[in-house]
Design goal:
The structure holds two protein chains of two kinds. Chain A is built from ten helices and eleven strands. Chain A is an alpha/beta fold. Chain A folds into two domains: 122 residues, Four Helix Bundle (Hemerythrin (Met), subunit A); 173 residues, Translation initiation factor eif-2b, domain 2 (Rossmann fold), CATH 3.40.50. Chain B has two domains: 124 residues, Four Helix Bundle (Hemerythrin (Met), subunit A), CATH 1.20.120; 167 residues, Translation initiation factor eif-2b, domain 2 (Rossmann fold), CATH 3.40.50. The chains are: A alpha/beta, B alpha/beta. Chain A: One of its GO terms (molecular function) is translation initiation factor activity.
Chain lengths: 357, 356
């Protein structure tokens, strides 16, 4: 897998090209990088560290990555010194750009990071030219803190409140893989002494559901849980009263980009008329349209597929990390501005970044 | 909160209602709460006022009585009043929509009056003006829906809805239409519609609720009133609407909903059982009922197995829902005074109004 780019051209099925590695039609997918990828230019140590954490999947998940990126940028901004004959508002971005490129090389940028960075760029260009440098830097860091607080932390709390209200006494909640937000919702519902049980559906290669299962069963008293892999879903979906899902991003046509397997869970739930609630902060909104999971995706690193065939070179391993769920399979999106249908996200000014909280 | 007062229209229900009311009105209900509910009930006696408008007017009257000195106090009082109304009503969905709209309006109203009492007078006047203006919405909706009614159409409608009635009466003046109207058990309000339509000479047949699938092939489209249009773009209406929508979808007939914009409600039901009107008593099986409950089937059956079991209409109505929820994907268009909207359009309008 690691050399798939070189082999991308040889996968046209010709008999004399048995060395082919990587399928040509998937060659545009974000490819996993080797951990020690090259450091080009003046990269801040905090960013180098973060890059390693990203490529090793030590920091994983849209919210965690966004918070980690912004926190690292705060260090970068504090350590930055404006060169002579330049102003902070004009020069800082050129200093940040290679840092961003480094992170993107480690792992393709998430929509959340993209949105946050766009907001940061706006704040930098808006910062007052006459402000002393340290003040300007402090103000930027304050704005970053506010962004994290308003768009992620407070938003999550509001979403928890809204979603918990929809979990009724005795419900069976089904969830897929692990979303930090869904985990918080379930724990909050549990802390309010609601009695409900959870079905955690999981899938290779990441098996993130195990982490969720661990945290749900470590509560006192533990939440009754069932853990199953994706192939067992059809026999379990009939027991579920509601499906709670997390998201990587939500697109303008209402389709949801989330962990591979989510689409299957949502479609099966629709088939069995189980309501599907997607929990998603408005800052995960992307103005692009997503039609399927092939246009844009990311591949899981090799270390997550240890059984990858080595001897038979005609067999390829393809582990896309994400898939796209059509809007018709989602009953409601729980956002910090309320429950909305997935297609209405584009009418929320907050999601478009037109207003600030 | 176990207190429930059921206010229904038919005579049988009135008896049940008076019994329930005497039992369930506890002393801790405050005077103001009772007062607002009384004025709400009085307003509802006006044939033209629907529940959201009656709620708005009841809140306006409450403002007149109020001696709040600040906006904060006034808003708190109004919120309390809205809560009291919704607590005392068996089916609070419609009135909640009205209260929500009115409180939102008050909150956003520009505070540029010289004194607070001036502002209050202004607000009261605005409330009355809105209610007055809102009464013209039905004509507007009728005009919008009129374009969709072709000459010689056969229309199916459900239960009794003032806006549907107005639309049909208007269509009758210029086009030939015939109407199927469902009986709409348990209240049988469909008969009222049929009587009013027959009186003006519209060919009209009452269809059993169970015969909708039989009749649907003869129907050109369905016109449905609504109690509330919710954020998903779906609607909450008299029970039976959902099954008509499903049948219309299966038969590929358009399903048009008519709703004044004050019925747009910021609520997102995930399923029938997620509606605020749902409670465990609905659709419960006799054995799960409390055995001391009066007139439960279970007790009768166990006490006197030899005498034949009688199930009366009231018994049936008691365990059954008043309203149901129709999913947005079953609705073709929603005609309202803000335009003809697709269900997505409705949800975008609502999100824009309240979440902006």
């Amino acid at each position: 897998m690691s050399s798939s780019r070189e082999g991308a051209g040889g996968a046209d099925g010709s008999a004399d090209g048995p060395k082919s590695r990587g399928l040509r039609i998937f060659s545009h997918f974000g490819l996993p990088k080797t951990p020690g990828h090259q450091i080009k230019g003046d990269i801040h140590p905090a960013i180098i560290k973060l890059g390693l954490q990203f490529s090793e999947f030590k920091i994983c998940g849209a919210n965690a990555r966004c918070i980690a990126t912004l926190t690292a940028f705060k260090t970068v901004i504090q350590d930055y010194v404006t060169p002579p004959h330049n102003t902070l508002s004009r020069h800082l971005m050129t200093h940040l750009s290679p840092q961003i490129t480094h992170l993107v090389n480690a792992r393709p940028m998430s929509v959340t990071m993209g949105n946050a960075i766009r907001q940061l760029k706006l704040e930098i260009s808006d910062s007052d030219i006459d402000l002393p440098e340290q003040d300007a830097k402090d103000e930027l860091c304050q704005k970053i803190d506010n962004y994290i607080r308003d768009r992620i932390i407070i938003a999550d709390e509001v979403i928890e409140d809204l979603a918990v209200k929809k979990i009724k006494e005795g419900d069976v909640v089904l969830t897929y893989a692990r979303s930090s937000l869904v985990e918080k919702i379930l724990l909050r519902a549990h802390s309010q002494n609601k009695h409900f049980s959870v079905i955690v559906i999981d899938s290779r290669p990441l098996l993130e559901g195990k982490t969720l299962l661990h945290s749900l069963t470590s509560t006192i008293p533990p939440i009754p849980c069932t853990y199953a892999l994706l192939p067992a879903l059809p026999s379990l979906i009939t027991d579920a009263d509601v499906v709670l899902l997390g998201a990587h991003s939500l697109h303008a046509n209402g389709s949801v980009y989330s962990r591979a397997g989510t689409a299957m869970v949502a479609m099966l739930a629709k088939e069995h008329s189980v309501p599907v609630m997607l929990c998603c902060e408005t800052y995960k909104f992307s103005e692009t349209v997503m039609l399927d999971g092939f246009g844009k995706n990311e591949l899981a690193p090799v270390k997550f597929s240890p059984g990858a065939p080595k001897s038979n070179s005609n067999l390829e391993v393809l582990n896309p990390l994400y898939d796209s769920t059509p809007a018709s399979c989602i009953t409601a999106v729980v956002t910090e501005v309320g429950l909305i249908p997935p297609t209405s996200i584009s009418s929320i000014p907050l999601a478009l970044g037109r207003t600030t909280l | 909160m176990t207190r429930r007062v059921v206010i229904l229209n038919t005579d049988i229900d009135a008896v049940v209602c008076s019994i329930e009311r005497s039992q369930t009105l506890p002393a801790d209900l405050e005077m103001a709460d009772l007062e607002i509910y009384a004025s709400y009930q009085r307003l509802l006696e006006n044939e033209d006022l629907s529940t959201p408008l009656a709620a708005i007017l009841a809140l306006t009257e409450m403002m007149e009585r109020s001696n709040a000195g600040t906006m904060f106090e006034l808003l708190n009082e109004l919120k309390g009043g809205a809560e009291a109304l919704s607590r005392q009503s068996s089916n609070p969905i419609g009135l909640n929509a009205g209260c929500e709209l009115f409180i939102e309006f008050i909150t956003l109203f520009p505070h540029d009056a010289a004194t607070f009492s001036d502002l209050k007078t202004e607000l009261i006047q605005q409330g009355r003006q809105y209610a007055e203006q809102a009464l013209t919405y039905r004509t507007k909706i009728a005009e919008l829906a009129f374009d969709f009614i072709k000459d010689d159409s056969v229309i199916l409608t459900h239960s009794y809805s003032r806006v549907v009635l107005q639309t049909l009466l208007m269509a009758h003046k210029r086009k030939r239409i015939s109407v199927f109207v469902t009986e709409a058990r348990p209240r049988g309000m469909g008969i009222k519609t049929a009587e009013k339509l027959t009186a003006v000479g519209i060919p009209c047949t009452v269809v059993l609720d169970s015969a909708v699938a039989y009749a649907i092939e003869k129907v050109d489209f369905v016109l449905m009133g609504s109690e509330a249009v919710v954020e998903s773009g779906g609607l909450v209406n008299a029970v039976g609407s959902n099954q008509i929508a499903i049948i219309a979808k299966a038969a590929n007939k358009p399903f048009y909903a008519l709703a004044e914009s004050y019925k747009f409600h910021r609520m997102f039901p995930l399923s029938q059982y997620d509606l605020p009107s749902h409670n465990p008593r609905l659709l419960s099986f006799p054995q799960s009922l409390n055995s001391t409950r009066r007139s439960s089937f279970g007790r009768r059956a166990s006490e006197s197995a030899s005498t034949p079991i009688k199930i009366t209409q009231e018994d049936i109505a008691q365990n059954n829902p008043d309203v149901d929820y129709t999913r947005p994907d079953l609705i073709s268009l929603v005609f309202s005074d803000v335009g003809s909207l697709t269900p997505e359009g409705v949800s975008q309008y609502l999100v824009g109004m309240f979440a902006g």
